[in-house]
Design goal:
alpha+beta, GMP Synthetase, Chain A, domain 3, 3-stranded mixed β-sheet, 4 helices
Length: about 130
Amino acid sequence: MASESAKGMNPRKHESADSTMKFVTMPDMDLHGFDLYRDKIPPEIIREVPFSVAREARVIPIKMNGSALLAAISDVDDRETIAMLRFVVAREIEVGYASREAIEFALAKYYPGADPEPDGFTETSL
């Protein structure tokens, strides 16, 4: 699972009590070598996460990794956001670290009209 840039890093695996939610975080990064500023995300991957969810949660879907969705997030320990994302996309989630600035750049690029700061997460935005 780890890319060349993550060799020697130990992923932290998390499972919920009911084992229906699994996600992996890599310390300090691992977007599997993906660069949010340079690389292109296919439209079908962007469509995996609705605009309202990406904007409010400040996440960017990167690619499919088997049946799991790899997403960029600035706080890889934010279990609440990761659980919400998993619920919305109805699949396993793997997260990798990206700076808030890189995520803001990608939101503007792939979700035109995204606000710089969310107004607050509401159930109606799902």
